[in-house]
Amino acid sequence: MYFFGPSNVKSRGSGPKPGGIGRFEVTRNQDRRSVTLSWEPVENATGYNISFGADRGKLYNDYIVYGDSTVTINILNVNKPYHFTIEAFNENGITKSGEIVTAP
After folding, report:
1. Which of 34, 53, 68, 94 has CB atoms 3.0–4.6 Å from 89's, for a disulfide?
2. Strand order across the beta sheet in which 35-39 lies
3. Dihedral, CA of residue 78, residue 83, residue 59 and residue 34, to nearest 10
4. Confidence class of residue 14 from pLDDT cuts 50, 70 and 90?
C-alpha cells in the first residue's frame, strides 16, 4: 500500500524503534518520468517514508510505503536529477537512514 503526501508519524509505543535501512537503491527507468526504489526490509518496521526532491537540500515530497520494500514513483520531470532518502517507522518512532541517493 502506498500513500503520497506529507509524513506525520508520531511515536506512541514504548518498545524499540525499527533498525536503520541497510541497502537503499534508486534506479531511473527507461521512461525518465519514473524511478524505482528498493531497500532491505527492516525488522519491526510498520512502513517507510521516502522523501525526495529535485534539490538535494529540499526533499519536500513524501511517499509512504506499507508492507513492501520496493516502489515505483511516476511523477518526475524528465530532464532533472532527483534525490531520495528513506526512513523506517513503527509505533515507537522513526529511524532515519541518513543517506541521500541521487537518480540522475
Report:
1. 94
2. 24-28, 35-39, 70-73
3. 40
4. confident
